[in-house]
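hiii, so i know i said id send this last week but things got crazy w the move. better late than never?? heres the sequnce for the chain we talked about at the cafe, plus the structure i predicted for it. fair warning i was half asleep when i ran it
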Amino acid sequence: MAPSAQAHHRSHSLLLLQKLLNLRDSASPLTLICDTIEQSAGPLVREVISRAKIARSKVVFISLATVKKPHDAEIFIKARGKSLKALATEITSHFTPPPKDTTSAPQKYLLIFDTLNPLTTPLQTPLLPAFFTSILPTPSTSLVAIYHTDVPSPHLPPYTPPPPTLLSHLATTVFHVSSLAHAIESHRAASRSLPLPEFGLHGGREGVLVGLAKRQPGIVLDMEMRRRSGRAVAERFILTPAAAGAKTGASIMLLADHPLFAAPTGDDVEGEKGEEGETTFSLGLTEKQRKDREGIVLPYFDAQTDVGGGEGGRILYDMGREDDFDEEEDEI
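okay and structure toks below
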């Protein structure tokens, strides 16, 4: 890929992520964020809410696990124990009707579901498509929902897709968040052809989960966006949350642009070559060995020259004392 093509790809990917986080032009009506106990989706959700407040969007927080109302949410709805129909009626009751004047812009809404796991019961899972359609009446409404992938899914009837498959099919954009520190350790092991380390639940260790997030601030975003044409766009990013009290937002970059994920440079390759002297053998040749190899006369070297008389290519062989001459083989 030419440098200009790489720069174009980088700019296009970053602008696309900025468009999704800013909820601009209804880029993604339904955004699904898949997280685990090892890496929460909190940093990404807080960034989306802060950008929505800058765009003067009304934030509606639908709580299924959160006890207290978030600071930036304007409307807080407790959804625990309510049916999907009753919940949809309560959510839409907070929407203001669109203005009759076509010149004025309609009010934008951001719906935040802190978790969708309680809604994925055998009775409610088939009703989720109609539920999402009812709470997204206009293009000015966007929905961001969190799904915990490490929570066991309930037993569903046969031929019913599991909740992660159904939600991923309904969503226009899917984010899988993971720890940056875990990704760095896995990349280091892969570059050295070592077994990939396992963290958290996959490590099989009992006790409290201890992560590495404090050593490497930031999260990895595995994005998959479905365009209206049906073509999917996949990319990996690093989102570093802003410090407390900072006026600027979070910083975003491609995973490939991170210094620890960059391709090895010429200095790194020379450094690896310099380490060959510390091994028990070396594949290189010294100057004396190179000259000795050039002075070796290969077998049948005289046969490569034209000796005249159309005899080029004949094999010259001198018999030794240990050779047993057989007249019958010579006649053949």
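btw The longest strand covers residues 232-240. thought thatd interest u
miss u guys!!
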